[in-house]
Amino acid sequence: MALSFRQSEILELARAEGKVVVEELAVRFDVTLQTIRRDLAELAEAGHLDRVHGGAVARTGVSNIAWERRRGMNEGAKLAIARSCAALIPDNSSLILNIGTTTEAVAQALLQHRNLTVVTNNMNVANILAASSTCEVVLAGGTLRRSDFGLVGELTTQFLAQFKVDFAVIGCSAVDEDGDILDFDLAEVRVSKAILRQARQKFLVTDSSKFGRSAPARLASLVDLDAVFTDQPLSPRLAELCAGSGTELHLAG
Fold it and tell me: What is the pTM of this model?
């Protein structure tokens, strides 16, 4: 389909920020909500976007967005989410952080904590926390994934099985409307499942652009978690799912 100027702008915004919101687009372009919804429906029908509650997200297919691009997407939301999560992690505790730009933001937010033991398969997290003189950093072995400096594979999974920590803090690529937490790489999913098994409390940190997206590999469900940290209210269906399972929802402002 031939895109209008407004639709082209909407598509660029979605690709740059991960998600676009109907109300914000209506204000930006000075048009009605119905006009924006029609634009999003046409873009979705053409295969450019996926519709989600309240807006749309860029379609990513079966491979994730490049790490460098993901790092700059929704940066403000990730920082707020990270601060909200870090506030519930006390000094003198142990945790595992997995691969992801939001977990890297959590590592940054933990720099003022004291006497943490942090296990990670994310070399970026290890480099961030190396700046803390009181934080013990334990880096997993495994196969290096050069695209994002994550360590994955059977060796990583076996290494993580040696620990029992207070908190697991994981990110993800997508959360669908059934509450399933999804990712693109089966090797990474196996590692993240191992991380959840080895933690007393399980936290998910993810910005709102991940909700309503799709990815081919299932990691867990929202009902398996103790808390979710995000930046926008969940859809009624997901909010009800969390409430029914006792999964706490923390909205970072």
Answer: 0.74
